[in-house]
Design a protein that fits this description.
The complex is a heterodimer of chains A (249) and B (494).
Chain A: H1 2-11, E1 31-33, H2 44-48, E2 54-55, E3 60-62, H3 71-75, E4 81-83, E5 98-100, H4 113-119, E6 123-129, H5 135-142, E7 155-157, E8 166-170, H6 178-187, E9 193-197, H7 198-203, H8 216-220, E10 225-227, H9 234-245
Parallel strand pairs in A: 6-7, 6-8, 8-9, 9-10
Antiparallel strand pairs in A: 1-4, 2-3, 3-5
Chain B: E1 8-12, E2 18-20, H1 21-33, E3 37-45, E4 50-58, E5 64-72, E6 76-78, H2 88-98, E7 101-103, E8 134-139, E9 151-157, E10 160-167, H3 175-178, H4 188-192, H5 199-213, H6 220-248, H7 252-273, E11 282-283, E12 286-287, H8 293-319, H9 321-327, H10 335-341, H11 345-350, H12 357-360, H13 363-368, H14 381-404, E13 425-432, E14 437-444, E15 450-456, H15 458-469, H16 478-485, H17 490-493
Classes of the chains: A alpha/beta (249), B alpha+beta (494).
């Protein structure tokens, strides 16, 4: 008993009071593209990017593909790329994840009144990893720890798809998982939504062109929220969902 | 025969005798009889319808031996598995990837349903146990918590597990061929995504292979920074397992405490390299992020506070009767069984088998900066839990020693590597990650490009240990057994 009290005392207060105002020091989050002119004919960033996230004229980075590896930053002779610790990167629109020198931020997630009414006070989520490397899975797990504590907003991870309002998808969707993923989705009652977490789930990421991957599920079901990163910071997830459902923090 | 005490072994292909498969199997058997361990056995396509097999053995004194053989499509050889159970998964993988039949293998089944088998994962040939009161319980691929997919088929007599069959492959992404598609020195992102909770161990094994193949010397300070990254990763993943164990027991205070302690460690990694998992910290030729004096003070302070708190939480966990009652004697793997099955890493050490790459192949780094290899004797969930706690303590002391040594300059963040890889060479690179030895084997062509890249996670060898551990245990103890092993699904499935 005394040991337990001692542990409780040193545990202190661990939760992040307002996730929207958090400042994750050192986190490599949003890519920042400078306005500097490129060297004529230079394609170093495009050929270096392992996921084809970068395209030119104008230079743009698709956060839905970006693994935040910094290889573009290393090879660019014009110092066009850097990364800030901005974690407010989630989006309800796939196209909004593309950043340029003039479009420097992901559009804020707009409150969906319909979803707010249904899930604003209680959102139950079922996680499915379909080829994830356990990076995204650990960060999804961290959502329920004492630091991020999404339970305080009525958001929970549940075991059964029957109890779930949303499916949290991680991984590029391996062919060996397509059937299980579909069965899980079909078992969830309407209304339901998909949250695509991480570059793999959003675009296939590093594995987009592998014949071991089958993206058919996402051609049938459009995600309601995209949470980019490799893996995404739990704060990116939390704030995206809070914004979508209009939950105050 | 080649000798090394380095965790990296570079061999010109010309130095290797090319055997036929039955001879290779025979030579392996001779080594295994004298107490060696089969580290890996794999194949790669060669010209037209022929294949090349590579076997790697490690003798009791740590010495590595490489054997090579060629064979034709559809060939066969007498399997090693009936005499040496540790070969079972390696021979299954060799068969699945090359088509060669190990004659007499008792359970020749696909490992991960790759290639043409991808549509047939539902047809896995499970064992059947028949008899009155025998029943089967199938769990997965999707499990109750946030966890990777895999299928577990329990054959039970009442509540007792008679046998567990672990069927994996759901995470198969086709990693190995991907590593041949891009230039050899640009693979770090892909390598870090093979097993996202062991990024540093994987990146280091890969970097070391590329550095050996390109004759690039790496300064001791850079190796020490990598060592700091790896020990932080080890502490973080041991904490993830301890937190999971506490949660699976409904020992909630343990779960909550280990959770926030892990946050402190991975956030410290993030302050150095931008990622809570150490991604992009390492690159072939060096590290992208050094330890400035401010970061060094930050790490020292963070780890100091962490050390005090975790000691308290561990004492709480170890002192609780409810924890002892569930863990002691549950999921036991005997020393003999661990040896016979060729288990590695933490799981082997918890069963009293002192296998640790950091001691057996210390290299210059761990010769000067040793990390003692620890073992437990009982091989049960309790032993695996306690060993994780003790390994965290050992990593903490090592980190304190390195970070506190003011004669070391750890600010370096240079990346220098020779672009050309040595042609016609084979490079074996091992790194002791949290679960055990992460193995990379790279082979180059005559032009110095990559011909083949083999990746092997300790989980591949250890999953069968879990199946053995739950035999004759209550089925309700499976979650704690599974968590105490804490194996990787994606790194098994590749």
């Amino acid at each position: 008993m005394l040991k337990s009290i001692a542990v409780r005392v040193s545990q202190g207060t661990q939760y992040i009071p307002d996730p929207r105002k958090a400042n994750p020091v050192g986190f490599r989050g949003k890519p920042v593209i400078e306005d500097a002119a490129c060297e004529p004919g230079c394609v170093a960033c495009v050929t270096t990017c392992p996921t084809g996230a970068i395209s030119l004229d104008p230079v743009q980075i698709d956060l839905g593909r970006c693994t935040l590896c910094t290889d573009c930053e290393s090879v660019c002779p014009s110092a066009k790329f850097s990364f800030s610790n901005d974690f407010r990167l989630a989006s309800a629109e796939r196209a909004s994840l593309v950043l340029t020198a003039t479009r420097r931020n992901v559009d804020p997630v707009a409150v969906s009144q319909a979803l707010r009414q249904r899930f604003g006070r209680s959102l139950k989520l079922r996680s499915v990893s379909a080829g994830g490397c356990n990076g995204c899975e650990l960060e999804v797990n961290a959502l329920t720890n004492v630091n991020f504590d999404i339970g305080r907003y009525g958001i929970d991870m549940v075991a059964s798809p029957r109890h779930a309002d949303g499916l949290v998808l991680t991984g590029p969707i391996t062919r060996n998982m397509t059937e299980a993923l579909q069965i899980c989705w079909d078992a969830m009652p309407e209304p339901k939504l998909v949250i695509a977490v991480g570059a793999c789930a959003i675009s296939g990421g590093l594995f987009a062109h592998n014949d071991t991957v089958d993206r058919g599920f996402l051609q049938r079901v459009r995600p309601t929220l995209y949470v980019p990163g490799c893996p995404p910071h739990p704060l990116t997830f939390v704030c995206g969902v809070l914004d979508l459902l209009g939950i105050p923090s | 025969m080649m000798k090394t005490r380095e965790p990296v072994l570079l061999l010109p292909l010309g130095e290797l005798d090319v055997l036929d498969m039955p001879t290779l199997a025979q030579r392996c058997a001779e080594h295994l009889q004298t107490g060696a361990r089969l580290v890996t056995l794999f194949g790669r396509p060669d010209a037209e319808a022929s294949w090349v097999a590579t076997a790697l053995l490690q003798g009791p004194d740590g010495e590595l031996t490489v054997l090579r053989a060629v064979f034709q499509s559809g060939a066969s050889y007498p399997a090693l598995t009936p005499r040496f159970a540790q070969a079972q998964i390696l021979e299954r993988e060799l068969w699945e990837q090359t088509g060669i039949t190990p004659l007499g293998h008792p359970w020749l089944k696909p490992v991960r349903f790759e290639g043409a088998r991808q549509q047939q994962i539902a047809d896995y040939p499970f064992f059947k146990v028949r008899g009155q009161e025998v029943h089967e319980v199938g769990v997965g691929p999707i499990h109750a918590s946030v966890i990777e997919p895999g299928h577990f088929r329990f054959m039970c007599l009442g509540e007792r597990v008679y046998h567990l069959e672990v069927q994996l492959g759901y995470q198969h992404r086709g990693i190995e061929p991907m590593l041949l598609r891009r230039a050899p020195l640009t693979l770090t992102s892909t390598v870090e995504s093979i097993c996202g909770d062991a990024c540093v161990a994987y990146a280091w094994a890969y970097c070391a292979a590329m550095e050996a193949l390109s004759d690039t010397p790496i300064p001791a300070e850079i190796e020490l920074i990598r060592g700091v990254a790896l020990e932080l990763e080890r502490i973080a993943m041991h904490l993830a397992a301890l937190g999971g164990l506490a949660t699976d027991l409904a020992f909630l205070q343990g779960g909550a405490s280990y959770g926030r302690l892990r946050t402190a460690i991975i956030n410290a990694s993030m302050r150095v390299c931008g990622s809570r998992f150490g991604r992009s910290w390492l690159r072939p030729g060096g590290v992208r992020f050094g330890l400035t004096d401010a970061l060094r003070r930050d790490l020292t302070q963070t780890l100091g506070a962490f050390a005090r708190d975790i000691a308290e939480v561990n004492a709480l966990m170890l002192g609780a009767r409810s924890v002892r009652a569930r863990f002691q004697g549950t999921g036991s793997v005997s020393t003999q069984a661990a040896r016979d099955l060729g288990l590695v890493g933490l799981v082997a050490r918890a069963s009293g088998v002192a296998l640790d790459t950091r001691s057996s192949l210390p290299g210059l780094l761990h010769q000067h900066w040793p990390i003692p290899s620890l073992t437990e004797s009982t091989g049960d969930c309790w032993a695996r839990m306690q060993l994780r706690m003790r390994e965290i303590d050992t990593s903490l002391s090592w980190l304190a020693k390195v970070l506190g040594d003011q004669s070391l300059d750890l600010r370096a963040q240079s990346i220098q590597i020779n672009a050309a890889l040595r042609p016609d060479a084979l490079c074996v690179s091992l790194r002791e990650g949290t679960r055990g030895p992460v193995l990379h084997v790279a082979e180059t062509t005559g032009q110095g490009t990559l011909r083949h890249y083999k990746v092997q996670d300790p989980s591949l060898l250890n999953w069968f240990g879990l199946a053995l551990a739950v035999r004759d245990n209550g089925i309700s103890d499976f979650p704690i057994c599974n968590k105490s092993f804490d194996l990787s699904y994606c790194a098994n499935d590749l």
